[in-house]
Protein: Methyltransferase domain-containing protein
Amino acid sequence: MAADFEKQSYWHKRFASETAFEWLTSSATFMRLVEPYLSASTDQRILHLGSGTSNLHVRLREKGYADVTNVDYEPLALDRGREIEERFCGDVVMKYAVADVTRLRADLSAPSMFDLVLDKSTVDAVSCGGDAAVLAMAKGVRECLAPGGVWISLSYSGARFELEDLPFDVCVIGNIPTPKTKVTDPDMYYRCYLLRPR
Structure:
């Protein structure tokens, strides 16, 4: 039976004991695809959706980007994020906000305009709630983007954003090979999408 990835109760139980986990691929691999979209100026405003127990935010900070808002709808995940930042960086300077990514404008108390939005398979968890949930996430991201801003999303699905009324133009900027259990397994890939507002 599939896990209830769209339910907060699933994540509360999971984050009660989980201290670190990387979805689909390492943050270092994901960062190689993100780097071309990081501005030369490190004051770029970044929104990290479904931050969970990933160390992606630390990878960003190592490159000098500290204006990062890490969002998760499970408070325990944000506690873990702060712990990871302090352990690797010696202090906590990033922002952490409890928010449901399908209700971003309502949940972010002082919604900012972001230059770059990142999600590392959060859209896959949201998709367990159906296409309407993914569209709600997409519309919320669109409302939070500053002019010229983009959304980069990593997904296991090659058809994740094939949705009517999606307020973005979508292209694949990277394919990451999935792990094989046998040499004879077919070649399969995770997709890294670039979404530009329409």
Summary: The helical segments are 8-15, 27-34, 56-62, 75-89, 104-107, 122-127, 131-144.
